[in-house]
Amino acid sequence: MNGKSQRTEECAYDDGGRVVGVVLDDVVVVVGSEDAGGVAEPRQLILQGSNSGIGYDTAKALAASASYHVIMACRSAEKAAQALSEIQANSPNGSLSTIQLDVTDHASIYQAAKMVDEEFGRLDTLINNAGALLKSEGGLAEQMREAFEINTIGQVIMTEAFRPLLAKSKDARLIFLSSRLSSISLRLQRDHQSYNAPFASYRMSKAALNMWAACAAKEGKEQGIRVWTVDPGLVATNLGGNKEALKQMGAGSSEVSAQTILSIIEGRRDTDIGKLIHKDGVHPW
Ligand SMILES: NC(=O)c1ccc[n+]([C@@H]2O[C@H](COP(=O)([O-])OP(=O)(O)OC[C@H]3O[C@@H](n4cnc5c(N)ncnc54)[C@H](OP(=O)(O)O)[C@@H]3O)[C@@H](O)[C@H]2O)c1
After folding, report:
1. What is the Cβ-side half-sphere exposure of residue 16, based on CA atoms within 13 angstroms?
2. Is the minimum distance from the CB of 51 to ligand 1 under 6 angstroms?
3. Percent helix / strand / coil, the chain, rounded to 5
4. Which of 177, 182, 202 to mutate to test ligand 1, by most ligand atoms within 8 A of the CB atom?
5. Catalytic residue status for 179
6. Closest approach atom of ligand 1 to CA 51
């Protein structure tokens, strides 16, 4: 639906000829909108990496509400199916489906976008969550290539592939999972808790992602696409392949990160559009 309507005596139609509402005293009342007292159509979301960690807990949190249809985008179809059946076992009110894509395989991204277009016709929220903290045996250049391939380039291509579908939403939200380690300002603060954390290639890949998010925020304005970049906090997930080590470093629960993402989707962080946010505020770039 693109908001344009064609009046007849009784019904309002979108450009595709679908009935979107009724005309009462020259005013179009949108059928199914909460304003009109009808049943709102669920928001369509794509959530990358929803088989693990923050993505999994976010899918679970979203599925609790009938307001959402979550498309779980994972690189492994088997892991996606397993995660979906675990979440569905809790009889969620929302609906879920899966789609296979690997952010380093750009053809798989465009194929997924085509499938979402054919099935849903629009996208309300894209959560670019997939990421990796790699421990390549190679030198810094090799580590950078690997990190940028997943954490940066893959997310740029995701944005480009799904932007036309987001542009069709009346409330388009684009969310990037970044990190406090991406902040150049915090990198130089000796008293910051992450000062001694190394991970130069990961830091650089996420800093570049932040710049892409800022570019997407600027470009998205014309299409009504609003953008947030999120530091989920230090949480114990499969990132880096050692959950126990993360716990020993004081990592918290990814359920808390999921709530931060939910707060964006539910409009509770609309004052922080275009910023690098965390659960309690905003980081400097
Ligand atoms: N955990 C933290 O403390 C922390 C802190 C700051 C930022 N973050 C960010 O939060 C995001 C989520 O990470 P997490 O902590 O939840 O880690 P995680 O448990 O390892 O989850 C990462 C997800 O990304 C997926 N993924 C990795 N490479 C992919 C690829 N090439 N194509 C598609 N999917 C891919 C993984 O799929 P597989 O299961 O198939 O590998 C997994 O589902 C990441 O962007 C991470 O950088 C995490």
Report:
1. 8
2. yes
3. 40, 20, 40
4. 177
5. yes
6. 43
Residue 228 to residue 129: CA distance in whole angstroms? 12
Q: Tokens 């962080």 belong to which residue? A: 269
With CA atoms as reference, report the closest residue to 111 among 122, 124, 102, 121.
Answer: 102
Residue 11 confidence (pLDDT):
44
| Predicted model pTM | 0.88
- Decide: helix, strand or coil at residue 159: helix
Q: By C-alpha distance, which of 168, 172, 165 is closest to 114?
A: 165
CA dist., res. 284 & res. 161, Å (int): 29
Q: What domains can be seen in the chain, in order of their start residue? A: 1-39 (no CATH), 42-283 (3.40.50.720)
- 172 burial via Cβ count (<10 Å: 0-12, 13-18, 19+): buried
Q: What is the mean pLDDT of residues 73-100?
A: 96
Q: Pick 89 or 24 by higher pLDDT.
A: 89
Q: How many other CB atoms sit within 10 Å of the CB of residue 133?
A: 20
pLDDT tens-digit readout, 136-154: 788 999 999 999 999 999 9
Angle subtended by helix axes 106-120 and 154-166, to nearest 10: 20
Alpha-carbon distance of 15 to 32, in angstroms, equals: 18
Is 206 an annotated catalytic residue? Answer: yes
Tell me which of 60, 79, 206, 275 is the catalytic residue.
Answer: 206
56 is catalytic: no
Element (H, E) at 204: helix 200-223
For helices 154-166 and 200-223, the axis angle rounded to 10 degrees is 20
Q: Which single residue is written with the structure tokens 């789609």?
A: 99
